[in-house]
Design a protein that fits this description.
Distance between the termini: 62 Å
CATH superfamily: TonB-dependent receptor, beta-barrel domain
Number of domains: 1
CATH topology: Maltoporin, Chain A
Shape: globular
Helix content: under 10%
Number of strands: 38
Length: 720
């Protein structure tokens, strides 16, 4: 057994002991205000006014532009009404229209979400306020937009939202409602000439009560959704490898067919004077894939097939009690996902892997106010675990038993003050204790870290329609539980600098970032808004992918802490009506742009840019919303990612800039239904990468050009 020095100084407590401590602290927090429960707020007949004015932290019924201007930190909220007017089909369609977000197809073919132009891993995506198991995230590029209640974009971290160096996107799924409604949506999407249907059905309403009942007799409500989907994805790739003596050209083709199902129940109501809600989803999927790489002379270089079975569930609950002192909110959540992967190579060798990942989280928060100023304090406990086994018959390593865990306990508090010039100041402090542990067979590695995360936010109105913001904070980004495992995952296809094996790193430490933002926010006529900000980041223990030759001809990529870095950027966003009359009537223009420069200030890459981070990102869109009165709607958008460095100390590399176009059109009939047609990735813009390696007089240059094909969607839906 090998332990790091950090683990020797502070041994990792057991999960049960830490959980008991978290529950005890949460109970103590509730007990500290128990006297308030017998105060004037509650009585035998129900709630009684306490004379307190308590402002909600998140108010979903308030328009997003007002939420942006009144939030203590840099927060944008898009609610259900906003989403309905967008006339969108999937969750990703919604994200593409939000300020401060750039959504593109990543280099691996999946959806990549960026904030402030930073690398996709610098943006944290949460579902219902909880971080799901890394590979258990819902397929947000396919989920129907009808499943979303609201989306919260936290662009600057606070004590409550520890956030990430880029920002946080919280997708809140639909909640139970006493209003009776039902709908269905049927979609066909076409890619690579293959048709794949999707069906979404939902219903919501009261249980054993009248939806028009008084507030103190609100009935229990339910929400039920069913989602069935087939999808087809893949890529076509052109590859070129040039050494000092030979030029090799080949092409690759990858195809994956996936079948998904999901059941999504929600329940909410009151138990006495407490508001209670329960949520969950159960899902499963199966995939069949194939990969074929041929030389230009027609001979096969690599061929394999793959099969995956996946089962997952997510459960959660929220409990809210109002006190004369304020409001106490407690939530718990858990999710678990199991994967069975089999990859069969034409050579007769195979790779088998079984994975199970789970996350449990408990949160408790007390919110109060004095006059119009808020104070909050809370506690969080999180336990993320992964275990499984892998076997590659092409090697002599044998069966590997895998296990890793990240345990986190956090205490936080923040308070708001009023300063001269109508300025509000919010100070916060978050203390986290993080334990990291990984085990491969009998080899064990442990770390225990204690991190302080202060934050400061100011908001200064300069007119009725404009205000300044300033944010200062310290945040951490944890590695993936799978990145901690000291084992190698073979690449799909021929191993090379552009297609390396993946190697884990049990010594990976969390990334720590100091953030500073200053910006101007402006309301515009016609529900418009605009913002511009300058941001700076100083990051220690930067987590990046290191590429190196492990042995002759075998290339591996490993996540490593590569040193410290500085990043400076300028960001702007705009949403405004195109015109008041004529052909552009009702059309809305949206734009996001970020220009940034990063530089490593120590380590082996000193002076170089952070690998994988583009120098600029731009997204531009124009859309006519879906009106409640019906009619035609539609829109088009473009996303541009600038070039990015992929260099390491031993290998130079670059990803070229890429622009993608999307368009959609549809028509709705009030209280009846709609149709919608969309085309994504118009023009099939490729992802182009190059790598060059030189050592001891030898040289090797590899180039790849990957096409993901346009995708066509056609949807019809009806309100029942």
């Amino acid at each position: 057994m090998t332990d790091t020095a950090a683990s020797a100084a502070s041994p990792t407590p057991s999960p049960a002991r830490t959980l008991r401590a978290a529950v005890l602290l949460a109970s103590t927090l509730a007990a500290a205000v128990s006297q308030a429960q017998m105060g004037p707020e509650e009585g035998p007949g129900g709630p009684v006014s306490s004379g307190q004015s308590l402002r909600e932290v998140v108010i979903s019924s308030r328009r997003s532009i007002e939420e942006r201007f009144q939030a203590a930190g840099s927060l944008v909220v898009v609610d259900r009404q906003d989403i309905e007017q967008m006339g969108v089909d999937t969750t990703v369609d919604v994200l593409r229209q939000l300020p401060g977000l750039q959504v593109t197809t990543g280099a691996n073919g999946g959806i990549e979400i960026r904030m402030r132009g930073l690398d996709g891993s610098a943006t944290r995506v949460m579902i219902d306020g909880q971080r799901s198991a890394g590979r258990a995230q819902l397929p947000i590029d396919q989920l129907p937009a009808d499943l979303i209640e609201r989306i919260e974009i936290v662009r600057s971290p606070s004590a409550e939202f520890s956030g990430s160096s880029g920002g946080t996107v919280n997708i809140v799924l639909r909640q139970a409602s006493p209003q009776r409604s039902a709908m269905f949506r049927l979609t066909d999407n076409v890619a690579f000439g293959d048709h794949n249907p999707r069906l979404w059905i939902m219903r919501t309403g009261p249980i054993g009560g009248d939806a028009q009942a008084p507030a103190n007799r609100t009935p229990w409500s339910f929400f039920m959704g069913v989602w069935l989907a087939d999808s087809f994805s893949g890529f076509n790739q052109e590859l070129e490898s040039q050494s000092a003596t030979a030029l090799t050209q080949s092409s690759a083709r990858s195809r994956t067919e996936r079948r998904d199902w999901m059941l999504i129940p929600r329940l909410s109501g009151r138990i006495g004077r407490d508001q209670v809600s329960l949520r969950g989803n159960v899902s499963g999927s199966s995939t069949d894939g194939s990969y074929l790489q041929r030389l230009n002379d027609g001979s096969t270089l690599r061929s394999e097939t793959s099969q995956t079975q996946r089962d997952s569930w997510q459960l959660g609950g929220d409990w809210t009690r109002r006190l004369s002192l304020g409001k106490l909110e407690t939530s718990w959540s858990g999710n678990r996902q199991s994967d069975e992967l089999l990859r069969q190579r034409a050579s007769g060798t195979r790779y088998d892997e079984d994975r199970t990942e789970s996350t449990w989280q408990l949160k408790s928060k007390l919110t109060g106010s004095r006059e119009s100023l808020l104070w909050m304090t809370g506690i969080e406990y999180e336990n993320r675990q992964a275990h499984g086994s892998s076997l590659d018959s092409a090697t002599t390593v044998g069966l590997e038993r895998l296990q890793s865990r990240i345990e986190r306990l956090a205490l936080w508090g923040q308070n708001e003050w009023e300063l001269p010039a109508k300025t509000t100041l919010t100070l916060g402090l978050r203390a986290e204790s993080i334990g990291l542990e990984s085990r491969v067979n009998a080899v064990n590695s442990q770390q225990r870290l204690h991190i302080w995360q202060p934050s400061l936010h100011t908001r200064t109105p300069i007119s009725e329609t404009a205000q300044w913001r300033m944010n200062l904070a310290r945040v951490t980004r944890q590695p993936s539980v799978w990145d901690l495992l000291d084992r190698s995952v073979p690449s799909q296809g021929n191993n090379s600098p552009t297609n390396p094996d993946q190697l884990g790193n049990p010594n990976l430490r969390p990334e720590v970032t100091q953030t500073f933002d200053i910006g101007l926010e402006q309301r515009l006529p016609g529900q418009g808004q605009a913002g511009v900000s300058v941001f700076m980041r100083r990051t220690g223990d930067v987590i990046a992918t290191e590429l190196f030759e492990q042995q002759a001809g075998l290339w591996v990529a490993q996540r490593q802490n590569i040193g410290s870095a500085h990043t400076v950027g300028l960001e702007g966003d705009l949403k405004r009506p195109l015109a008041g009359s004529g052909w552009a009537r009702d059309w809305m223009l949206t734009a996001n742009a970020t220009v940034l420069q990063s530089r490593m200030i120590d380590g082996a890459r000193e002076g170089a840019a952070i690998p994988g981070q583009p120098s600029y990102t731009i997204s531009l869109g124009a859309a006519k919303p879906m009106r409640r009165t019906g009619g035609t709607f539609g829109g088009l958008s473009a996303s541009l990612n600038g070039p990015a460095s992929l260099s390491t100390p031993s290998v130079s590399g670059r990803e070229r800039s890429r622009i993608t176009f999307d368009a959609h059109v549809g028509h709705s009939v009030p209280r009846k239904g709609f149709w919608r047609v969309g085309v994504y990735n118009l023009g099939d813009a490729p992802v182009e990468r190059s790598r060059s390696y030189r050592e001891a007089g030898a040289s090797l240059t590899e180039r790849s050009k990957t096409y993901y094909a346009p995708r066509i969607y056609a949807s019809v839906g009806a309100q029942l």
